[in-house]
Amino acid sequence: MQGRRAGTIRTYDRYVVPSYRRSPVVIVRGRGSRVWDEAGRRYLDFFPGYAVGGLGHCHPRVVRAIAAQARRLIHIPNTYYNPLQGRLAELISSRAFPGKCFFCNSGAEANEAAMKLARKAGAPAGRHEIVAMEQSFHGRTIATVTATGQARYHEGFAPLLPGIRHVPFGDLGALRRAVGPKTCAVMVEPIQGEGGINVAPPSYFAALRRLCDEEGILLIMDEVQTGMGRTGNYFAHQLYGVEPDVMTLAKSLAGGVPIGAMLAATRFADLLQPGTHASTFGGNPLACAAAIATFEAIEEEDILGNVRSMGRRLRAALDRMAAAYDFVREVRGEGLMLGMQLSIDAPAVVAACLRRGMLTNATGDNVLRFMPAMTVTAREIDEGTGIVRAVFDETARGGRAKGRRGRR
Ligand SMILES: Cc1ncc(COP(=O)(O)O)c(C=O)c1O
Q1: Closest CA relative to residue 326, chosen from 387, 226, 408
Q2: For position 402, what pLDDT does the model report?
Q3: Homologous superfamily assigned to 2-59+302-397
Q4: What pLDDT is recorded for position 3?
C-alpha cells in the first residue's frame, strides 16, 4: 500500500504542475464526512473539498442525479435550450433575489463575469474602476487575482489588471474615500474565507448598500464560499438583510461537480447581450442536474437547520477551547464557517490533525478553518473537536506554546 501511495506521488511529481502544497495522502473514496485513502485508512473530513463538499462526499441524491443525467445528455452548447439550466437559474434567483444567471465552471469565472458586467454597466458613464477588499480572495485568473487583496498571490504576475483598488474590509471611511467618479462596482465577500474567516458588522453591509445606491454603482457579493447554506442562511447576504446587485456562486453549488454561477439583478443582467460573454461548458445539463439535486437535498433534508444547530455545537466546542488554551486568540464566523485565530503555527496543527485521522485547513494568518459538511452529525462534530483538543493538549505539553489556561 505504501508503494502504491509512493507511486501516485511520484507520478504527480513527474507529470502534474507543482502549484499546490499537498499533504502526502492519496484519497480514493468518500462518503458524507468521511474519506478513505489507498490503504483503506479512514479520515474525518472537516474541510471537504475546500468548501465544495457542502453536502459531504457523494451525497446519494447528487450521485443519482449525475448518473441519470449522464445516461440522458451530458453536454449541449449554450446555443440551444435545455430545461435544467432554466430550472437551476430559477432556483437560484427565487432563493436569493430577482435576477438572471450566467453559468460557468468555477468561482473565478463567476467573478470574472461579474467584473465584466460591472464594467459594461459603468462604460456609458466612463466608470471602470472596481473597489475590492484587503485580505479578500476572488480567484486566480488575472482579473480575479487582481481583485484578490493579498499581495502574495500577485507576485510574479505583473502587470495586473488596471482599475482595481483595495480598502480594508469593514472600514467604511476608507471605502467612501476610494469610491469616486470612475468607480463602477464594489466587490466583497460577506465573510472573508481564504483571508481568515473575517467578519464585518451588519451595519457595514447596510452602509455599503446605501453607498452603492447613492453612487449608482454595482454591489457585487462573492458568495463562492459562503453560499448554499454555509452560514445557516441560503446566502450570507441574507444574514445582513442586504441584497447585492450581483452574487457569485461556485464551490458547493453542484455537490462536487464543477460549476460557477453569477446571478445579476435583471436591469444589469440584460446588458450581457449575445456576443458579450460566454462559456462553452457553462451550465451544461450534467452540472445543472447535480445543482438541482443539491437544492433539493438542502430543502428536503433541512440542511439549513442542521447548519444552525451543528454550527452552534461546533462554536461552543471551539469557544471552550478558546477559554482553555491561551494560544487560541479568537473564534469567529457564522454557522458552519468558523475560524480559530491562533498565536501558534496553524499549519502545524493541521498536520497533527491529519496524523490523527482528520482533514482540516489553515488559512489567513494562522487561522484554523472549520467548514465541515453541512450534513455533519453531532458525533462527528464531537469527534473532530476532540481531535483538535488532543492536538492542543499535545502542543501545550510540548511547550511549543504557553499552554493551557488553568482548568476547563
Ligand atoms: C470567495 C471565493 N471566491 C472565489 C474563489 C475562486 O473559486 P475557484 O477556485 O472555483 O475559481 C474562491 C476559492 O477559494 C473563494 O473562496
Answers
A1: 408
A2: 42
A3: Aspartate Aminotransferase, domain 1 (3.90.1150.10)
A4: 84
- CATH architecture of the domain covering 73-300: 3-Layer(aba) Sandwich (3.40)
Ligand 1 atom with the shortest distance to the CA of 109: 11
> How many helices and strands (H and E) does the chain possess?
12, 17
Q: Tens digit of pLDDT for each residue in 97-147? A: 999 999 999 999 999 999 999 999 999 999 999 999 999 999 999 999 999
**Rounded-to-integer distance, Cα 24 and Cα 40, Å:** 15
Residue 194: half-sphere exposure toward Cβ, Cα within 13 Å: 20
| CA 339/CA 198 separation, integer angstroms | 8
Alpha carbon 1 to chain centroid distance?
33
Dist. CA 282 → ligand 1 center (Å): 16
The predicted-structure confidence for 41-95, as pLDDT tens digits, reads as follows: 999 999 999 999 999 999 999 999 999 999 999 999 999 999 999 999 999 999 9
Minimum CA distance residue for ligand 1 atom 13: 139
Q: How does residue 365 score in pLDDT terms, banded at 50, 70 and 90?
A: confident
Q: Which three cell numbers stand for residue 396?
A: 501545550
Substitution candidate for ligand 1 out of 137, 188, 246 with most atoms within 8 A of CB: 137
Residue whose CA is closest, atom 4 of ligand 1? Answer: 138
Amino acid at 308: R
Q: Is the distance from the beta carbon of residue 226 to the nearest atom of ligand 1 less than 6 Å? A: no
